[in-house]
Amino acid sequence: MKITSAEFVMSNSNVAKCPNEPLPEYAFIGRSNVGKSSLINMLMERKHLAKTSGRPGKTQLINHFKINKNWFLVDLPGYGYARVSKKDKKVFQKYITEYFVKRKQLVCAFVLVDIRHEPQPIDVEFMEWLGTNGIPFAIIFTKADKLKPGAIVNHVNTYLRILLEGAWAEAPPHFVTSSSKHMGRDALLSYIGEINNGFYTN
Ligand SMILES: Nc1nc2c(ncn2[C@@H]2O[C@H](COP(=O)(O)OP(=O)(O)OP(=O)(O)O)[C@@H](O)[C@H]2O)c(=O)[nH]1
Ligand SMILES: [Mg+2]
């Protein structure tokens, strides 16, 4: 898919106030600092479209971007860090869970995980929560530039094997990316393009 336009539309914390155009929508979610906003900028080839930072907790609201005038991309705050107290660390911000439950346009959630780490409880729990709520998702491994090329496949396989020891019967679709090395862009955009085609032909 060629990106011909990418515009910021709005930020808010209320799912009811999100854009109401019936366009297919893709959300990027994952732990704070995993690289959600950087990945969006890499996909769109726009350095400053989504705000990024080395400090976790940069993205605080639901941010809608309209792409090619016919789909939405959504940058969300990270979980597991900002505004989450120690006591209920695994409680996801209410407006984020509300977003996933209520957003009818959502066709796929991308759950980002750092390729260097084994499955973290908070990520596994979030994926299980998406599954329980019937929300389609795919896994995006981020920061692949931090591993030697030979280690990438091993890390991905180990991650998926551990995940499959849990509640999953089969591995979700997954993508290996690096925003700094522009890796994984074509595969992800093709995947989105295919889902968009299905959306518009049905
Ligand atoms: N090496 C490397 N660093 C990355 C990559 N993607 C993001 N980073 C760095 O990771 C940090 C966090 O990036 P963000 O894109 O702001 O992460 P986020 O998930 O949007 O974070 P929050 O909005 O705080 O939840 C920044 O310092 C980025 O430069 C990558 O592919 N490779
Ligand atoms: Mg962010």
From TrEMBL:
Alphabetized CDD domains for the sequence: YihA_EngB
Alphabetical keyword list: Cell cycle, Cell division, GTP-binding, Magnesium, Metal-binding, Nucleotide-binding, Septation
Biological function: Necessary for normal cell division and for the maintenance of normal septation.
Name of protein: Probable GTP-binding protein EngB
SUPFAM superfamilies associated with the record: P-loop containing nucleoside triphosphate hydrolases
Cofactor(s) required, per the database record: Mg(2+)
Name of the gene encoding the protein in the UniProt record: yihA
Limits of the EngB-type G domain: 22-198
The keyword 4Fe-4S belongs to this UniProt entry's keyword annotation: no
Alphabetized InterPro entries for the sequence: G_ENGB_dom, GTP-bd, GTP-bd_ribosome_bio_YsxC, P-loop_NTPase
UniProt record similarity statement: Belongs to the TRAFAC class TrmE-Era-EngA-EngB-Septin-like GTPase superfamily. EngB GTPase family.
HAMAP family: GTPase_EngB
Alphabetical list of NCBIfam families matching this protein: GTPase_YsxC
